[in-house]
Amino acid sequence: MAAYRLDVISLAPQAFTLLGELGVIGRAFAAGRAELHLHNPRDHATDRYRKVDDEPYGGGAGMVLKPEPVFAAFESIPVCSQRRVLLMTPQGRPLIQADLQRWAESHDQLVLLCGHYEGFDERIRSLADEEVSLGDFVLTGGELPAMTIINGVVRLLPGTVGTAASLVDESHSDLLLEHPHYTRPADFRGMSVPDVLRSGDHAAIARWRQQQREQRTANRRPDLLDRWNRRSNVENDDDGMN
What is the CATH number of domain 169-241? Predict the structure, then answer.
């Protein structure tokens, strides 16, 4: 199987070197399950000062990332058969687990465009298939969001995580949050492992875990529980029609 290709366009490519040393993610790169390629727009600037930003038309504070070096960096990247281009921007749609699953399963290449300075020339948006945000806040650049996406996608690639089953019931895999986990000792500072987990009754354990997932989601993320209930109702209605 060919390696999953990740291309990052960034003015701070050195920020991504840690990914190669990061536990299962680093091992996935070392094993050839994924490849990371870094592209600095400054390497594609044509003036003697390798200028990548300029003042905004119409005035205003800060500098704006120029289109020419970004387009040149983008056009230097080989194109795989199932490529997706993502622009890191606080104006984008908030990242969710389903996005990571979709990109890992349906694509073989991600190109991640990282903004910098006050912003980027609006024409750079035309390169992207999707605009992605980590949330309603602003960072100094798109590097941290890009690293988050790389981590989230690579861990879902076959063979990255030792036990594939561990990906099934984790938080956000199906909207619900993950159930509590316990290990030895059974009692610690007056806090005990629930009896059901030590009962050996696998059906009872499965019911307890599902109840805990629903209760935890209700307490912490009622918006997710509402979406999960609505989806479950639709699926039940579809089953009843078959």
Answer: 1.10.1270.20
Sign of the alpha-carbon dihedral angle for 114, 70, 29, 176: positive
Residue 105 pLDDT level (bands cut at 50, 70, 90): very high
pLDDT over threshold 60, residue 148: yes
Contact present, 224 and 231 (Cβ < 8 Å): no
Q: What pLDDT score was predicted for residue 118?
A: 78
CB 19 within 8 A of CB 150: yes
For residues 213-236, one letter each, b for 16 or more C-beta atoms within 10 angstroms of the residue's C-beta and e for the rest, the string is: bbebbbeebeebbeebeeeeeeee
User: How many other CB atoms are found less than 10 A from the CB of residue 119?
Assistant: 18
Give the other-Cβ count within 10 Å of 147's Cβ: 21
3-state secondary structure of 87: strand
Neighbours of 60 (CB within 10 A): 11
pTM here is 0.87
The mean of the pLDDT values for the chain is 92
Q: Which CATH architecture has domain 4-154?
A: 3-Layer(aba) Sandwich (3.40)
Residue 25 identity: I
Residue spans per domain, the chain: 4-154, 169-241
